[in-house]
Amino acid sequence: MTTAGDTADAVRAAVRAAVDAAYRDEWGQVVATIIGLTRDWDLAEDCAQDAFAAALSTWSRDGVPSRPGAWLTTTARNRATDRLRRDAAGRTKLREIAVLAPEPADPAASAVSAAEDIPDERLRLIFTCCHPALPFDARVALTLRTLCGLTTAEIARAFLTAETTMAQRLVRAKRKIAEAGIPYRVPPADLLPRRLASVLAVLYLIFNQGYDEQDGRRALTAEAIHLARVLVRLLPREPEPRGLLALMLLTEARRAARTDDGVLVTLEHQDRSRWDRALIDEGVAVLDDALALRQRGPYQLQAAIAACHAGAADAASTDWPQIAALYAELGRLAPSPVVELNRAVAVAMTDGIAAGLAVVDDLAAAGDLDGYHLLPATRADLLRRDGRVAEARAAYEEALRLAPSEAERRYLAGRLDAL
Which residue(s) pair with 260 in the sheet? Predict the structure, then answer.
């Protein structure tokens, strides 16, 4: 028998789920809109948080609105206006806002102006967060906090740094924006190319943060893909936004096959019939458009590698020599020990296990990947293929201690059990 208490609990659970979903989908737009209105980052975050808190009580009473994002944005805007009215400086700011955004006298002219605007308010936020006056790590962290609503702890984990350090970094970044008068805008066309690298890095980090389906933030991948599409429309002659979009699409296409009952499934063993062929076809087409612009960059090369995997009917058909060559070119354009680790696998599959292990051993000796679980995991896999079981076991055990996700730990534990 259902009681009134059971019904109330069900309503609260449904509202909590709706608020959680809205937080993932709408936080960035709400904050970006309020920053655009007030130019006050802390006020925007505070009012957005107030709006989500109000949603918990109001939606329980009145029901979830048909457009949660619009409700949250309106509530946050009203909170911001109320807070600004309560002090003299705020009242001055409200008058400035009224002057800067007057009501249009001509609706037709207003429509033309709107069409010429940047297509997404969040893009203004990204370019502001990625201003060259800010340190690079601060640019990425600030965007993850304000655009995506990641907590300071989540951002700290992404950067492999302490939470207190990340909190200080965010405070300094916001202070720098205010004190330096960094404009809240997409930069003019002549400055856009120079600002792209950090913007693309932000989008890719957002995508990767959401790609792990175990962490409850899968909507971030859609957010990153959406913003990448906006960036492609904004910069049609720039190849790297297309390269990044292609990379995201080709990676997202494999999501359904990436885990099995909570256990990581490596690319070699994935059921390729579960890959999303529509996303693969779109990703390859976007990559072709990027390469046609004849200015190769790191994201295009990574997308080309992903396309090689996507085009193979099975693991045995993978064009490893081509992948090894692409990783070598990527290493020249964007040197990184992680790129070199990936190249080691391609070298092993092309030139033999010993050649790949030599690259891995050089990386281990350099120490740049100390504490990175994929270094011992890669070494373990190559040792296993080479029949060196005892050494493989030790490497798998090290990787298991370092692995950051449960899916990876289960996979590594399974590999150990199978030795």
Answer: 263
| Spatial separation of the C-alpha atoms in residues 191 and 250, rounded to whole Å | 30
Residue 305 identity: I
Question: How far apart are the C-alpha atoms of 313 and 315, rounded to whole Å?
Answer: 7
Q: Which amino acid is at 29?
A: Q
Burial class (CB within 10 angstroms; exposed 0-12, middle 13-18, buried 19+) of 50: middle
Rounded Cα gap, residues 323 and 192, in angstroms: 31
Q: At 277, is the secondary structure helix, strand, or coil?
A: helix
Joined together, the tokens standing for residue 393 give 């076991």
Residue 133 contacts residue 176 (beta carbons within 8 Å): yes
Least confident range from 134-138, 277-281, 294-298, 360-364: namely: 134-138
CA pair distance 195, 413, nearest whole angstrom: 43
pLDDT for position 159: 66
Which pTM value belongs to this model? 0.71
Phi, psi of 293 (to 5 degrees): -80, -10
- C-alpha neighbours within 13 Å on the C-beta side of residue 223: 32
Token readout for 300 is: 């295009």
Q: How confident is the prediction for the chain on average, in pLDDT?
A: 83
